[in-house]
Automatic annotation (TrEMBL):
UniProt-recorded name of the protein: site-specific DNA-methyltransferase (adenine-specific)
Alphabetized Pfam families for the sequence: N6_N4_Mtase
Gene Ontology MF terms in the entry: DNA binding; N-methyltransferase activity; site-specific DNA-methyltransferase (adenine-specific) activity
SUPFAM superfamilies referenced in this protein's UniProt entry, alphabetically: S-adenosyl-L-methionine-dependent methyltransferases (SSF53335)
Domain DNA methylase N-4/N-6: 121-478
Top class in the EC scheme: transferase
Reactions performed catalytically: a 2'-deoxyadenosine in DNA + S-adenosyl-L-methionine = an N(6)-methyl-2'-deoxyadenosine in DNA + S-adenosyl-L-homocysteine + H(+)
Listed GO biological process terms: methylation
Similarity remark: Belongs to the N(4)/N(6)-methyltransferase family.
UniProt organism field: Chitinophaga solisilvae
Annotated InterPro entries: DNA_methylase_N4/N6 (IPR002941), DNA_methylase_N6_adenine_CS (IPR002052), N4/N6-MTase_EcoPI_Mod-like (IPR002295), SAM-dependent_MTases_sf (IPR029063)
EC number of this enzyme: 2.1.1.72
Length: 677
């Protein structure tokens, strides 16, 4: 029976395997520090394979480099022996939600998600520290090789201090920030779908370097745009009113066509007025006057003011010119009868924009007559989607409804007030526990800009104030889609020297929870979910989240390094699970990670033959970690024909049962994958 590896993938070895497929002569065998044989790249040979001339020593080339870049790459690729432990009591709708809140170092979390969510994320939005001279950044442990990293990441005495203040007096001011962000973006790219996109908020201080990093990781051809966000609130720290930040957008694969769109400004006010006029049964001519008053007051551009007429259902529409648009050529010429007089209407000087068949279809003109004609209050007529004047002397126009053109391409300059702090205050009874939180209006705009399908996932691995999770739920309530979110936040200890964090610490003490940012993030999402439901009483979408916490592996050291265990400890190590990990759900979620199974699938526990058996999505996976497992129980589970089944390696009542497990499943459920821990 094959054993699960119970650690994240070794991306270095995966990369070497890909090189070996392309250039077999460039991969050789070498001994590691323990004397084990491993594949290694012959870089001199690889340079020659990729060169059109004789390859010699290192040459100058265009690239972004900094002290620590190699260590950052190694850190991104090295495997870790960690896990995600479920926290039911901190979750909302644990058994039914499809959303995740992961508490822990985002570098570890991104590694743990590599198998389960590889190529499955539609959109990533992050708002990392801006590196403005007083930010805290993640201090990663750079190591010499992957083996050491694996051992260190599995030790019991972990370092709790993951954040350091990155001040401008630090000699590695830019380098430390670049190393921190490089490894995380590199891992994040793997998680995106081919149709996925990355959005990164950033300020002036690192915009140039961040662009170079993303160009390297994603490829310059996958750069979409650098959006300038006008926050409308000036910040004066260099003798000028700075009112903008940036949002970088990159595609996973530019070969997959992607358009980014946004709703036209002011539509909410317009539709609110139209709904009021319709409810009051305002006469159409008077209602149109009210619409035009609003347009004039708000100063809308022609993209909206063109749509100033109402049909009998109070639906806004506008007239579109039907003349041939090209000044150097001519369009088709044909006669069009007026629906009232029957006489031919005036033909545009350069001909019609449409072919005759297209015009007739739009006007619903069949067998020489208009199939439907609606007289309007001003004496004009609507025939299908063609407008005619009172008589034949005026050229007709095509009809387009405003709700058909609600959107246009996302603009490279956005003007949105930075009122995220006000939003947080409303949620937390007048108190703001975060510094400069992003507004949900910005996130909702970005979420709506990308074409999402049912169940698409949004990832934010710098969750902070929880704005992304809030925006996902609110946007789902508005457009009826079912986006899911995964947000990751380090349990960063609150700094009580800062006024807003001092208040946050008081809230944590009042609720009896640890005093860290992750706790405030979770509370913001809980309260936001309640607000979304109150503001949208008909909304029945997912407003819960399943809390998972990054922790050391559930498996004892002997599971990973059995050769290092001395003889006298072997009898103590018969149970290869750590003694303080007695919750079988902890083991279950590490198995889900190792096998790459969706972490939000429903989990059900049932007693069968006196043993605790977990069913993940009924037949996606069956797990039993109890001891004394009999052949009868194995047979009963095999008859359920699950896709996967896992047992504790030392859980069988005899060696004979353990030996027969594979044979039983081959007979009763040959397609089931059988493993042990």
């Amino acid at each position: 029976m094959e054993k699960l590896k119970m650690h994240t993938p070794d991306l270095t070895q995966d990369n070497i395997a890909r090189i070996r497929e392309l250039f077999p002569s460039c991969v050789t065998e070498a001994k590691d520090a323990q004397g084990n044989t491993k594949y290694a790249v012959d870089f001199d040979q690889l340079k020659q394979e990729l060169s059109g001339q004789i390859a010699e020593g290192p040459q100058e080339r265009y690239q972004l480099n900094w002290p620590g870049k190699r260590e950052a790459l190694l850190t991104a690729n090295a495997p870790i022996a960690k896990t995600l432990r479920p926290a039911r009591e901190e979750s909302v709708d644990f058994d039914t939600t499809k959303n995740l809140f992961i508490e822990g170092d985002n570098l570890d979390a991104l590694k743990l998600l590599q198998e389960t969510y590889l190529g499955k994320i539609k959109m990533i939005y992050i708002d990392p520290p801006y590196n403005i001279g007083n930010d805290y950044i993640y201090k990663d442990d750079f190591v010499e090789d992957a083996e050491d990293f694996l051992i260190r990441s599995n030790q019991k005495d972990e370092k709790g201090n993951r954040l350091v203040s990155n001040t401008e007096s630090n000699g590695r001011f830019h380098s430390d920030w670049l190393s921190m962000i490089y490894s995380r973006i590199k891992l994040a790219r793997n998680l995106l779908k081919d149709s996925g996109a990355l959005f990164i908020s950033v300020g002036n201080d690192e915009i140039a370097n961040l662009r170079r990093i993303c160009d390297e990781i994603f490829g310059e051809n996958n750069f979409v745009e650098c959006i300038t966000w006008n926050k409308r609130i000036p910040k004066n720290d260099k003798g000028i009113g700075n009112i903008h930040e940036y949002i970088l957008i990159y595609l996973k694969n530019s070969a997959v066509r992607q358009e980014f769109v946004m709703r036209k400004d002011g539509l909410e006010d317009i539709y609110q007025l139209v709904e009021k006029l319709k409810k009051n049964q305002e006469p159409i001519d008077q209602a149109e006057k009210e619409i035009k008053k609003l347009y004039k007051k708000q100063g809308y551009d022609r993209g909206i003011t063109l749509y100033n007429s109402l049909d009998t259902a109070y639906r806004l529409w506008g007239k579109i010119n039907m003349s041939w648009p090209n000044a150097t050529t001519f369009g088709p010429r044909y006669e069009v009868p007026h629906p009232k007089t029957g006489k031919p209407v005036a033909i545009p000087d350069r001909g019609w924009r449409w072919k005759e068949d297209t015009f007739k279809e739009a006007a619903n003109f069949k067998n020489g007559t208009y199939q439907q004609m609606t007289a309007l209050h001003d004496g004009s007529f609507m025939c299908g989607k063609i407008w005619f004047a009172k008589d034949e002397n005026t050229q007709p126009s095509s009809i387009t409804y405003l709700d058909e053109v609600n959107t246009f391409l996302l603009r490279s300059v956005l003007s949105l007030k930075s009122d995220g702090g006000i939003e947080v205050e409303k949620i937390f009874d007048g108190k703001n526990y975060f510094s400069y939180p992003k507004p949900t209006t910005l996130l909702r705009l970005l979420l709506s800009s990308i074409n999402m399908e049912e169940g698409d996932i949004v990832l934010d691995f710098f969750a902070g104030s929880g704005t992304t999770a809030h925006a996902v739920m609110q946007t789902n309530a508005e457009d009826g889609k079912n986006r899911k979110f995964i947000v990751i936040q380090l349990p960063e200890k609150l700094d009580t020297n800062l006024p807003e964090q001092k208040m946050a610490a008081e809230l944590c003490r009042k609720k009896g929870v640890p005093e860290n940012i992750a706790e405030i993030s979770k509370e913001r999402i809980r309260r936001s979910a309640q607000k979304v439901k109150e503001d949208n009483p008909d909304f029945t979408g997912d407003t819960g989240f399943r809390v998972l916490k990054v922790d050391t592996s559930n498996m004892a050291d002997i599971y990973y390094i059995p050769d290092n265990v001395i003889q006298k400890r072997l009898l103590d190590a018969v149970n290869n699970i750590k003694p303080d990990r007695n919750n079988p759900e902890d083991l279950l979620f590490q198995v889900l990670l190792d096998w790459g199974v969706d972490l939000t699938l429903p989990v059900r526990k049932e007693k069968i033959q006196g043993k605790n058996v977990f069913f993940v999505d009924e037949d996606a996976l069956i797990a039993c970690f109890d001891t004394g497992i009999s052949e009868d129980l194995v047979s009963e589970l095999a008859e359920k024909k699950p896709l996967r089944v896992v047992f504790h390696d030392n859980g069988f009542e005899s060696d004979a049962v353990k030996i027969n497990v594979d044979q039983i499943f081959r007979q009763l459920s040959p397609s089931t994958e059988v493993k042990s821990i």
